């Protein structure tokens, strides 16, 4: 009589289980330790270079506009979305640039998504029709063979 157990009995020995627990414990310790160390490093570097608009209140000096070629090189915020708005921080009176998402860009992304979904709908509808025709042909062929064998 065969057992329904899919785990070999050799894997359930106490020594093997202890070795597996030790191995996976060390792996998880290393992964979580690396994650904690990288988190400490990033928080230390972020504290030094935090933009003023993340820490204090600000006023938008100019609306979200497309970055020009020379602005993309000079202003690091342009590289994120390609659009930037000028910010005045209230406490420190600094003028900084903040990356933003324009309504035109959002609309463009929306219509691209809609087009992709429409295209996928057409493709899968054609696949369903082709599969249905194939199954219908197979069924009629089966019925024809059954009738011929009588």
From TrEMBL:
Annotated membrane topology:
Single-pass type I membrane protein
Mind telling me which InterPro entries this protein's record contains? Answer: JTB (IPR008657)
Provide this UniProt record's keywords sorted from A to Z. Cell cycle, Cell division, Cytoplasm, Cytoskeleton, Membrane, Mitochondrion, Mitosis, Signal, Transmembrane, Transmembrane helix
Which Pfam families does UniProt cross-reference here? JTB
Q: Where are the transmembrane segments?
A: 16-37, 109-130
Superkingdom of this protein's organism: Eukaryota
Keyword Methyltransferase applies: no
Location in the cell reads: Cytoplasm, Cytoskeleton, Microtubule organizing center, Centrosome; Cytoplasm, Cytoskeleton, Spindle; Membrane; Mitochondrion
* Gene Ontology biological-process entries: mitotic cytokinesis
- What family name appears in the similarity comment? Belongs to the JTB family.
What does the record give as the function of this protein? Required for normal cytokinesis during mitosis. Plays a role in the regulation of cell proliferation. May be a component of the chromosomal passenger complex (CPC), a complex that acts as a key regulator of mitosis. The CPC complex has essential functions at the centromere in ensuring correct chromosome alignment and segregation and is required for chromatin-induced microtubule stabilization and spindle assembly. Increases AURKB activity. Inhibits apoptosis induced by TGFB1. Overexpression induces swelling of mitochondria and reduces mitochondrial membrane potential.
Query: What name does the UniProt record give this protein?
Result: Protein JTB
Organism, by scientific name, is Astyanax mexicanus (Blind cave fish)
């Amino acid at each position: 009589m065969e057992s329904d157990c899919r785990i070999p009995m050799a894997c359930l020995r106490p020594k093997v289980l202890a070795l597996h627990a030790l191995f996976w414990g060390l792996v998880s310790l290393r992964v979580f330790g690396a994650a904690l160390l990288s988190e400490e490093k990033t928080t230390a570097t972020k504290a030094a270079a935090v933009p003023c608009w993340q820490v204090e209140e600000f006023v938008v000096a100019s609306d979200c506009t497309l970055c020009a070629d020379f602005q993309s090189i000079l202003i690091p915020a342009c590289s994120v979305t390609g659009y930037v708005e000028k910010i005045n921080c209230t406490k420190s009176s600094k003028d900084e640039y903040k990356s933003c998402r324009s309504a035109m860009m959002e609309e463009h992304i929306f219509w691209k998504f809609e087009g992709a979904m429409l295209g996928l709908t057409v493709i899968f509808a054609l696949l369903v029709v082709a599969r249905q025709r194939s199954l219908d042909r197979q069924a009629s062929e089966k019925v024809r063979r059954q009738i011929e064998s009588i």
